[in-house]
Amino acid sequence: MDIDDLAKRIVAGERRALARAITLVESGREDHRAQAAALLGALPLTRQALRIGLSGTPGVGKSTFIESFGMMLTRQGKRVAVLAVDPSSSRSGGSILGDKTRMDLLSREPNAFIRPSPSQTHLGGVARRTREAVRLCEAAGFDVVLIETVGVGQSETVVAQMADLFLLLLAPAGGDELQGVKRGIMEMADVILVNKADGDLKAAAARTCADYTGALRLMRKRAHDPDGFPKAMMVSALQEDGLDQAWSEINTLMTWRRKNGFWDHTRAEQARYWFHEDVRQQLLARLNDPQARAALDQLSDQVAQGDADPAEAAAAYVKTL
């Protein structure tokens, strides 16, 4: 593979080259990992897209929102990339990867790029290599990168470590809404959007939005937010209502963060986080070495037979690495 040629084609905005590059960075093969590292190193760092993380409860309409929101942005002349993470089966390892089917209009838009990826049982709501895929989309000249997680859960906040802004999508009339979402993910959200605010659900959406507005006032104010943020808003992805207002609020928040230095600070802290994460992953990968595996099995047998203390055996094993 000609890495330099692939990098040039990505910078030129070739969609096939971008798709091929994302496949490369998602590969777990050792030779592919080396090629992926070389490719990322050959790409310019000057291009920066607005990275928007998006999560929400199952059935809230994430795909419908992304399509409507993405189409609105492309009509404004922006190039939009969507990185959608689908859950992988713990039994077979497979994923449905049906996001392109659910986003029929956006998938045919020339200024949009949709890439579904399997989570591969990786916790945090995103695939292990989503961050690298974001880098590729930025190098390809996309203005906005939407990162859709698999859904709300206790560990679905990793996306905040690769996004500039985190949207939490919620549905009205879902019972006790405030108890339905973990506090941790609410604390990470910059904007809460109550979707399906149309028809018979519009009144329920207004009540839900009011509930979350009140709850956000009780939460500790964050240093990287101006007055009024985080905030809750109503939108209807189906009727494309409220999307312009949501985009306006996003721009207001991002402009304030850029002006006050929080944009660069956040990007720097995210780079530090992923450096530590890559170190952890590479240390874990060393466990697959045959000698390391043999030593691990030997110590495991000793612990199982009661001949060694688990903590002492673990310390001894780490020293061998």
Feature tags:
Rossmann fold, 50% helix, seven-stranded parallel sheet, globular, 14 helices, 321 residues, alpha/beta, 3 domains, Single alpha-helices involved in coiled-coils or other helix-helix interfaces
* Spans of at least 5 consecutive residues with low confidence: 88-98, 120-126
Q: Mean of residue pLDDT? A: 85
CATH fold category name of the largest domain: Rossmann fold
Q: Distance between the terminal alpha carbons, to the nearest Å?
A: 33 Å
Which shape, going by the Cα principal axes? globular
Largest β sheet strand count, sense and barrel closure = 7 strands, parallel
CATH architecture of the largest domain: 3-Layer(aba) Sandwich
Q: Indicate the percent of residues in helices.
A: 40-55%
What order do the SSEs take from the amino end to the carboxyl end, as H and E?
Answer: HHHEHEHHEHEEHHEHEHHHH
| Total beta strands | 7
What is the radius of gyration?
A: 22 Å
Strand content bin: 5-15%
In short:
This protein folds into three domains: 1-43, Single alpha-helices involved in coiled-coils or other helix-helix interfaces, CATH 1.20.5; 45-259, P-loop containing nucleotide triphosphate hydrolases (Rossmann fold); 276-320, no CATH class. Helix content is 50%, strand content 12%. It has helices at 3-11, 15-26, 30-42, 62-75, 99-102, 104-107, 130-139, 177-180, 183-188, 202-218, 243-259, 262-285, 290-304, 310-320; strands at residues 50-56, 80-86, 112-118, 144-148, 165-170, 191-194, 231-234.
